[in-house]
Amino acid sequence: MKASWKKKAIPTSYMTKSKQHIVCTVTNDLVYDQRMIRICTALAEAGHQVLLVGREKTSSPPLTERPYQQIRLKIQPEKGKFFYSLFHRALKKWLLTQQKINILYAVDLDTLLTCAQVTQRRKDIRLIYDAHEYFTEVPELIGRPIVKKIWQYIAHYGIPKADICLTVSETLGEVLSQKYGKPFHIIRNVPTPKPISHTPKPEPKIILYQGVLNKGRGIEAGILAMHHIENAQLWLVGMGDIIPQLKTLVAQENLSQKVIFKGHLRPDQLALVTQQSWLGINLLEGQSLNYFYSLANKFFDYMMAGIPSLNMNFPEYRRIIADYPMGLLLSELTPGAIAEKINALMNDPITYQNMVTQAHKAKTVFNWDVEKIKLLDIVTA
Prior knowledge:
Layout: E1 2-3, E2 21-25, H1 34-45, E3 49-56, E4 69-74, H2 81-96, E5 103-107, H3 109-121, E6 126-131, H4 145-158, E7 164-167, H5 170-180, E8 184-186, E9 196-197, E10 205-210, H6 219-225, E11 232-237, H7 243-252, E12 259-263, H8 267-276, E13 279-282, H9 289-292, H10 297-304, E14 309-312, H11 315-323, E15 327-330, H12 335-346, H13 349-362, H14 368-379
Parallel strand pairs: 2-3, 2-5, 3-4, 5-6, 6-7, 7-8, 10-11, 10-13, 11-12, 13-14, 14-15
Antiparallel strand pairs: 1-9
């Protein structure tokens, strides 16, 4: 049985009579970027001509048909400083050949430099900068001062040139506004409302991590916590730089029956897996300011599926859970602390059900039907 949730159409007042040609730029392969899928779809449904530009990797699956155009640039090598340099050149060359661009929408610093340089040459193009994260404070830059200075230079060069700045959370917006002297509008990274299946959840219980498997995500501690959690499996959905190390850790700890690597899933597949899960985890190391100020999309994906979540006791999660107690807050990122929180919830079905109820309440407030109207107000002003 499924609960119905009718998708809300964009109000006719937002259906533009002046069609804008909007080009959005990212460095991923477009298939799994749910935020940009939602943003580009909303802009296209409002009557704009939208094109999303990314890159094609050797492992990239075919593109899914969308209500907007998509282009992927082929760049070799596929990572490292040479990738960014070559992607910048290819993207800049391509953009300068396009005659009809009214708005350039740069996602994060890895495309902002290109877009800022193009809009300096083409004064008729408006520049939107969307900071999905605190890019100069990502954990990958810890201990790499020269690389960090390069990204800091790009931020100080490009952000002041943006006509509109967006980001994903109130706390990060306050930090970026103070640092760069530009107002940042908040467009939360929340899912589109979907019907929920009420079929029984499988046994053993699924504890779900969805997202990038990279340094600083607390995944190692989550894996080791499974030594102390019974009747459950940890499912890791996603890809990332530390997968070989994580698989080695699972093998060394003899946890291959309790930790399952699911790889990349398309958004529709991921939504089904999330609904089947008993608990979602959103673990992060606090030494990265990017993580400390974060408001991860997985937090809202768990909410939309109606499942509780285990989150770090960081400002944004603390703020929302205070109003909607739909999850747990973790102050210490250790296997023992993780297992203690999860086992306590397993033994408290009343609290668990209350969290489910609160998640369903919260999703009437934190959903894309609400956020896309804010987006259109800002972009089309």
